């Protein structure tokens, strides 16, 4: 039996990004939900293990990739969502290819297109590549603008995170706000979802994040109180961008 097409598609640059950023919100999104991991491909055999994968405890790039696939399967099953893994290798194993799998995936979706969520790209060049490629393809398809979600844990380090001052702070911050400011220069960033997780939602999210166990130690080294109840994962934020009118005389 052919499964129903997704009503929501979340583009996750890496295996853990959708869960870190949206695990609390996912049950509220139109189902079925599919998480699409862009940098999910197997590394070519000539690559030595990356610094990050070595820090996670792996001896080879292939071992790390196999483990990440297994971790992701557990997390998505726990959240009750489908998953699709594209063939682009992760950044350290990048072969310099364009992200054409995004084009093929989005173009193959049935019409009307499902709701699409993209990362805003905070502090991560890989995330911005995914965002910009998908925005370009969706524009070519004449599709509605997607929703844009705050990348966690990066955006969650703002002192104002999870408060009514979050957007103002992102508009001023020169460490975690640059991607938001870039988007806000082109779009009006209307708030679509502002979720401060309840204890029940937090427990569910924490369990899903624990599925990515190989990465938790180095993530905690970089992000401190990653899994604290009051830490950077405690709130989730999604915007609905609206195109700003072009100045008179500007090229279309």
What features would you describe in this structure?
By secondary structure, this protein is an alpha/beta fold. Helices cover 37% and strands 16% of the residues. The chain has a seven-stranded mixed sheet, with helices on both faces. Helix 3 packs antiparallel against helix 8 (199-210) and helix 4 packs across helix 5. The longest helix is centred in the N-terminal third of the chain and has 19 residues, at 61-79. It is globular, with a radius of gyration of 18 Å. The termini are far apart. The model has no long low-confidence stretch (mean pLDDT 94).
Give the topology, please:
Elements: E1 8-12, H1 17-22, E2 33-37, H2 51-55, H3 61-79, E3 82-85, H4 100-108, E4 115-119, H5 125-140, E5 147-149, H6 166-172, H7 178-184, E6 187-196, H8 199-210, H9 213-223, E7 235-243
Parallel strand pairs: 1-2, 1-4, 2-3, 4-5
Antiparallel strand pairs: 5-7, 6-7
Helix pairs in contact: 3-8, 4-5
* Rg from alpha-carbon coordinates: 18 Å
Number of DSSP strands? 7
* Widest sheet, order of strands: 3-2-1-4-5-7-6
Secondary-structure element pattern, one letter each: EHEHHEHEHEHHEHHE
Question: Unreliable stretches, pLDDT < 50, 5 or more residues?
Answer: none
Helix content percent band? 25-40%
Distance between the first and last residues' Cα: 45 Å
Largest sheet: 7 strands, mixed
Tell me, briefly, the overall form. globular
Q: Output mean pLDDT.
A: 94
Structural category: alpha/beta
Chain oligomer state: single chain
Treating each run of at least 4 consecutive H or I residues as one helix, how many helices?
A: 9
Q: Give the percentage of residues in beta strands.
A: 15-25%
């Amino acid at each position: 039996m052919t499964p129903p097409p997704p009503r929501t598609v979340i583009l996750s640059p890496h295996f853990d990004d959708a869960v870190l950023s949206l695990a609390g919100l996912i049950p509220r999104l139109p189902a079925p939900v599919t998480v699409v991991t862009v940098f999910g491909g197997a590394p070519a055999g000539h690559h030595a293990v990356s610094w990050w994968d070595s820090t996670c405890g792996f001896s080879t790039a292939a071992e790390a990739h196999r483990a990440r696939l297994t971790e992701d399967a557990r997390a998505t099953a726990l959240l009750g969502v489908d998953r699709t893994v594209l063939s682009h290798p992760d950044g350290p194993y990048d072969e310099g290819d364009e992200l054409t799998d995004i084009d093929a995936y989005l173009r193959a979706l049935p019409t009307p297109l499902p709701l699409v969520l993209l990362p805003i790209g905070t502090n991560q060049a890989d995330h911005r590549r995914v965002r910009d490629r998908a925005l370009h393809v969706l524009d070519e398809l004449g599709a509605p603008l997607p929703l844009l979600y705050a990348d966690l844990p990066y955006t969650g380090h703002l002192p104002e995170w999870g408060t009514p001052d979050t957007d103002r702070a992102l508009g001023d911050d020169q460490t975690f706000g640059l991607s938001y400011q870039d988007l806000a220069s082109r779009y009006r960033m209307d708030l679509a979802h502002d979720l401060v997780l309840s204890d029940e939602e937090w427990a569910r999210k924490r369990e899903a994040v624990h599925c990515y166990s190989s990465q938790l130690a180095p993530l905690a080294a970089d992000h401190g109180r990653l899994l604290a109840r009051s830490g950077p994962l405690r709130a989730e934020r999604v915007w609905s961008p609206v195109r700003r009118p072009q100045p008179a005389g500007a090229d279309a």
